[in-house]
Amino acid sequence: MTEAYRCIICTNVERVYDSDPQTNPKAQSFDTLTHKELQNIVGPAEHDAAGPSGVVDPMGVADAARANLTLNVLDGRNPELIRAAIEGGSFPGTVIESEEE
Residues 38-52: what's their mean pLDDT? Predict the structure, then answer.
């Protein structure tokens, strides 16, 4: 599918949450997740009709898992965070990786 090893997802939130932090003040954020855990948050990898907008598309999560692609989710409004992720440095956000076998 791809020769990439990482995808940087720039959003308007700081990381992945278990629900929308703009409507749920008790939403839990995550520093790390597996693809499976993220899939459980965003829902199954199927599209019957247009659904709610989320940080990561359910089909995209399934594709990333199949490709063993690391996902970095961060606040794209801060160019320094983007730079840190591109350069492989640390950044506040969520790192999503495959489960260890």
Answer: 78
Confidence of residue 83 (pLDDT cuts 50, 70, 90): very high
Give me the phi and psi of 11, to 5 degrees please. -130, -175
Question: Confidence band (pLDDT; 50, 70, 90) for 88?
Answer: very high
Q: Domains in the chain, ordered, with CATH?
A: 6-44+54-97 (3.40.1160.10)
